[in-house]
Amino acid sequence: MEEVLQQGIAKAKNGDYTAAIELFTKAIALNDKSAQAYYHRGLAYYDLGNIASAIADYDRSLNLDSRQVNVYFSRAMAFLAMDNLQSSIIDLQVVLSLDPNCDKAYKLQANICVRLKEYDEAIDYLKQAGKIYLERQDKESCRFCLARIRQIEQQKIEVQGGVTNQAFLQQIQQKIDRGNLGEAFSDCNWLLQLDPYDAEAYQYRGKISEKLGEYEQARQDLHQAAKCFRSQGNIAEAQKLTRRCLELQLNNVNHIARKTTPQPKIHRLTRTSQPQNALQRRLYVLVGNWNIAQSLVERLMQLHPAKPETWYWEKAIYDLERDRL
Fold first, then answer.
1. Would you list the domain boundaries of the chain?
2. Cα-based distances in Å from 304 to 170, 174, 307
3. Burial of 107 by CB count in 10 Å (0-12 exposed, 13-18 middle, 19+ buried)?
4. Residue 260 confidence (pLDDT) above 80
5. How far apart are CA 244 and CA 259, in angstroms?
6. Superfamily of domain 163-259
7. What is the sign, positive or negative, of the torsion defined by CA atoms of 104, 107, 111, 112?
8. Engineered SS bond to 206: which of 93, 189, 194, 222, CB 3.0-4.6 Å?
9. Which helix (DSSP H) or strand (DSSP E) does residue 159 occupy?
């Protein structure tokens, strides 16, 4: 039974959830008292978007062993995905009673509080998680908590009439629609500095990269957005982005193939792996991504052919800095 269980876990790690479920079901047939088999099958159902089946398997696993912190947490995530906030809160309370240092439970509690517009409670939960990270000397996770606290504090202000995060994202979309891709990309970078787990910022940045033909960069950002949405319990959006990542992977293969095929001669940029001069470095600093900086210049080359190459770099910098004034 253990061998079949491990085979299922391996399939799930590779993203083949259907095959994983078949193996976990076989493991359960061999030993229907295996709490781990039910748990892992529940995880696979969750990743497939079958939340009801996931919860049913988590229930069976907990009936066999009622002190599994990871199973209570996974069930809390599943309840959250179904907008059953109260059941999710109850499971998270059990998690924290079993493991008072479960940082991810505090963070999920904070997300639920934000949904309920209980901003002060959300901040308190994040402070608890931050203390745990300080004790572990986990600087990156501690920075995440601080950034999330700042974001929630802004939301609290926004309720009183400030500019909402959604409004800022709408402004980014307007810039994309107007063709101000460099500025929109820079705005996404700013959002991700504030909150490195902002799913929508990754999603918008991926859209911009796709418009610029940077399919691999777009795929990476959309993959990260999918991970963030999944951690928030938004399975539908995560699945949609995962499918889009596969399409972009194919687009990137086709894009590379076209580049190796002889094309009509047009003004193209000689690509480098890093900035070569002061102008290039200046644009790189403004955008924050070297491939995107080069793509912006190539876009200008298509819009304004037969100009000196320096003109394109200066134009890209001017457009960005003008929009910042």
1. 163-259, 270-325
2. 28, 23, 7
3. buried
4. no
5. 22
6. Tetratricopeptide repeat domain (1.25.40.10)
7. positive
8. 222
9. helix 139-159
